[in-house]
């Protein structure tokens, strides 16, 4: 006759103990994406400093260690939304691509000259926008911190970006210091989409701005390394952004 009362007392005691026990710690709240972007901009010199130059010329080296390839790299970018890249590899030639504000193009020894279209063109247009480089909200439909993780050996907050075109990419901002230490993008090409994981390191000062001087990229099982040796501001002539003659010949009406 006493089993039930004893059972009830045991359950009551268990419930009381549970009520007195400390609640499990709540999951750590992730910093908002905009807060991480602002922290990054502060760490590199500020939004205004990042947008101050009318144009920029970056020079350095390019290598694919597994293939034994090395070359010289030059990237020019200019307002409002222009960019051109040239990689010169001895024995292979020049690999060039760009966006002049209207036309996206590519020129290399393997595939020749071609105009970009579809997702390739849209990606080139978005990446040429200076506001996208400072992660201005106007360039995206959403920005969200999704997790704390580790990339390149550094703890970082991973931010998911949804661009106006609908494509997604990810930035990773260091927990310690706030610098961008990695990014994950989808590279469009005639052969399809390829995920590119980039590790950014060795930040240095150029004209009052801190920029990464080493970019290690992993794509389709291959690694390529870009090392920046110089960055110059407002030294590029506007004519330098014009597509080469091979590209001009492909434009409608020519």
Quick structural overview:
The protein is an alpha+beta fold and 254 residues long.
How many domains make up the 3D coordinates?
1
According to CATH, what is the class? Mainly Beta
Q: State the total count of DSSP E strands.
A: 13
Structural class: alpha+beta
Global mean pLDDT: 89
Based on CA inertia axes, which overall geometry fits? globular
Which CATH-level-2 architecture? Clam
Uncertain segments are 1-27
Strand order of the largest sheet: 6-5-4-3-2-1-13-12-11-10-9-8-7
Termini gap: 102 Å
What is the CATH topology assignment? outer membrane lipoprotein receptor (LolB), chain A
What does this structure look like?
With 254 residues, this protein is of the alpha+beta class. The protein has one domain (31-248): Clam (outer membrane lipoprotein receptor (LolB), chain A), CATH 2.50.20.10. The chain has helices at residues 3-20, 33-44, 47-51, 118-127, 130-133, 245-248, and strands at residues 55-64, 69-78, 82-89, 93-99, 104-108, 112-115, 140-151, 154-163, 168-174, 180-189, 192-206, 209-219, 222-233. It has a 13-stranded antiparallel β-sheet, covered by helices on one side. The radius of gyration is 25 Å and the shape is globular. The model is unreliable at 1-27 (pLDDT under 50).
